[in-house]
From TrEMBL:
PANTHER family: SODIUM_BILE ACID COTRANSPORTER 7, SOLUTE CARRIER FAMILY 10 MEMBER 7. Signal peptide: none annotated. The keyword Membrane applies. The keyword Glycoprotein does not apply. Keywords: Membrane, Transmembrane, Transmembrane helix. GO terms for cellular component: plasma membrane. The chain crosses the membrane at residues 7-25, 31-49, 70-87, 99-119, 131-153, 165-184, 234-257, 278-301. This is Bile acid:sodium symporter.
């Protein structure tokens, strides 16, 4: 039977299903703890497989792609804050002072790591550059975000756990990737022959992140803490902010002459904001304050960016492969 044109693809339907399930059956208590471990394992597996798949030459090339990294950093740590400040006359009356402060905090955060790389992989972008760019954004964000929060919100943190954050990122992301690189000698060919497994790991990790993040939002009382009209206004603001960044990233990457794979990487790495990093940072930077409303914009933006980028990534994934890639897959 022919699939109706109006029906979204299977992955988008799965995302919608996961959001609905999380709304009515969010993970709580020990279940949430166990689910968090499961998500971490899936992310570690994702990075392990990417480490086993990617050659060292491609990783070195990705790390040396300084023009791409500079543009992604500019989008993350310059464009976002400037948009947050420039839109104050519109945002502050629409959603109120407290939620606007949350928008400014959102704009100061680093990019996500796992979802940015997963979407880049799904869309067949420059994965080595995405890994280097996203990981560097998280590491540098540990230092840049407190500075931006001080400048934008005039708030000073009462302490920090920079070393702990670096260790956590290294254990969760870099160590599995390095392990994959070490094991590449023995399993690299197998991973290359079974590259469809990476697609399922990519999609699975995204679904786990969506469920976990939305469960946390529901448990925080996202539907009770904010009136429906403020929530609707906040959704519009998050959509507007994401649209402006996506359009700007697309235009700038074309203007600077990046190829399509690099443009995909810039799009997905430069438009993300990390919920996993933002919530712990808020607890440190705003110690002694109620952070529920402050992180509400981040929680909503996080869900919206995942849903929108999933659709965009699926569209990129359906494009025809370059002739060079098709020839490389043909057995000699």
């Amino acid at each position: 039977m022919t699939r109706p044109r109006f029906l979204p693809d299977n992955f988008t339907l799965m995302l919608i299903t996961v959001v609905i399930i999380a709304s009515f059956l969010p993970a709580t208590g020990q279940v949430a703890v166990g689910f968090g471990w499961l998500t971490n394992i899936a992310i570690a597996l994702l990075f392990f497989l990417h480490g086993a798949k990617l050659s060292r030459e491609s990783i070195i090339a990705g790390a040396g792609h300084w023009r791409l990294h500079l543009l992604v950093f500019g989008l993350t740590f310059v464009l976002f804050p400037l948009l947050g400040l420039a839109l104050k006359p519109v945002l502050s009356p629409l959603i109120g002072k407290d939620l606007y402060m949350g928008i400014l905090y959102l704009c100061a955060l680093p990019a996500t790591v796992q979802s940015a790389i997963a979407f880049t992989s799904l869309a067949r972008g420059n994965i080595p550059a995405a890994i280097c760019s996203a990981a560097a954004s998280s590491l540098f964000g540990i230092f840049l975000t407190p500075l931006l929060v001080t400048l934008l919100l005039n708030v000073h943190g009462e302490g920090g756990s920079t070393l702990d954050a670096i260790v956590k990122i290294s254990v969760q992301l870099l160590l599995p990737f390095i392990a994959g690189q070490i094991m590449r000698r023995w399993i690299g060919a197998w991973v290359g022959r079974n590259k469809n497994w990476l697609k399922f790991v990519d999609q699975g990790s995204i679904l786990l992140v969506v469920y976990g993040a939305f469960s946390e939002a529901v448990n925080e009382g996202i539907w009770q803490k904010t009136p429906i009209w403020d929530l609707a206004g906040l959704v519009v603001v998050c959509c507007l902010l994401l649209t402006l960044v996506l359009v700007t990233a697309t235009l700038l990457s074309k203007l600077f002459g990046f190829n399509q794979e690099d443009r995909i990487t810039i799009l997905f790495c430069g438009s993300k904001k990390s919920l996993a990093t933002g919530v712990p940072m808020a607890q440190v930077l705003f110690a002694g304050s109620t952070i529920g409303l402050l992180i509400l914009p981040l929680m909503l933006f996080h869900q919206i960016q995942l849903m929108v980028c999933a659709v965009v990534a699926q569209r990129y994934a359906k494009r025809a492969e370059p002739v060079a890639e098709l020839m490389a897959q043909v057995d000699p």
